[in-house]
Amino acid sequence: MLKELLKNKEIILASGSPRRHQFFKDLDIPFKADVRPVKEVHPDYLQKEEITDFLAQLKAEAFQKELKKDQILITSDTIVYNEGNAMGKPATASEAKEMLRSLSGKTHSVFTSVCFTTHNHQSTVNCETKVSFKELTSGEIDYYVENFKPFDKAGGYAIQEWIGLIGITNLEGSYFNVVGLPTHLVYKELIDLA
């Protein structure tokens, strides 16, 4: 359906995430992937979805001056937000394990913002999902990090992997948002832009 509506548009997905690429394929939206390096730093006073809104918009800046009339640029950012702290991607195994220890037995939020930029317009949507983990044992945490190496995942985990299968007890909101994209919002926004 969207493919037909967007036939005169070129979608540029500024993400290297295989999960986001798969979502676009599953939504039957043709796209071109183009990733530009961006220093993902945000002001300290920002909280929750303000952080992901800021970073999604920041990623769009690298493209903004060269967008053509028929192009729609899509940039996004996801964070895990736990006890007032934004958790990005872990740099090391010990950092990933520390992140999982801090999430164990608690409920945290996952925020994703998606920014849509054209040559003359920009809009940003965001989504929050609440995720609850059981008390994870040290053995479970070690096993997951050593076998799945979640270094490209915000908060040090992927809900669709082993740790999510054994550890997540409750979910409030969009599952796909936690995987990395609030697909229902992307669909709605692209219909509006078509």
Automatic annotation (TrEMBL):
Q: Quote one Gene Ontology molecular function term.
A: UTP diphosphatase activity
Q: Where is this site: Important for substrate specificity?
A: R19, T78, Q160
Compartments it resides in? Cytoplasm
Cofactors required: a divalent metal cation
| Pfam families, per database record | Maf
The superkingdom of the source organism is: Bacteria
Q: What is its main location?
A: cytoplasm
User: What's the Enzyme Commission number for this chain?
Assistant: 3.6.1.9
Spell out the family assignment given in the record's similarity comment. Belongs to the Maf family. YhdE subfamily.
GO terms in the biological process aspect are: nucleotide metabolic process
Query: What keywords would UniProt list here?
Result: Cytoplasm, Hydrolase, Nucleotide metabolism
What is the top EC class of this enzyme, as a single word? hydrolase
Q: Which residues form a coiled coil?
A: none
* Stated role: Nucleoside triphosphate pyrophosphatase that hydrolyzes dTTP and UTP. May have a dual role in cell division arrest and in preventing the incorporation of modified nucleotides into cellular nucleic acids.
Tell me which species this is from: Salegentibacter mishustinae
Q: Where is the active site?
A: D77
Recorded catalytic activity of this chain's protein: dTTP + H2O = dTMP + diphosphate + H(+); UTP + H2O = UMP + diphosphate + H(+)
Taxonomy of the source species: Bacteria, Pseudomonadati, Bacteroidota, Flavobacteriia, Flavobacteriales
Protein name as catalogued: dTTP/UTP pyrophosphatase
Which NCBIfam families does UniProt cross-reference here? maf
**Which cellular components does GO assign to this protein?**
cytoplasm
InterPro entries given in the database record? ITPase-like_fam, Maf-like
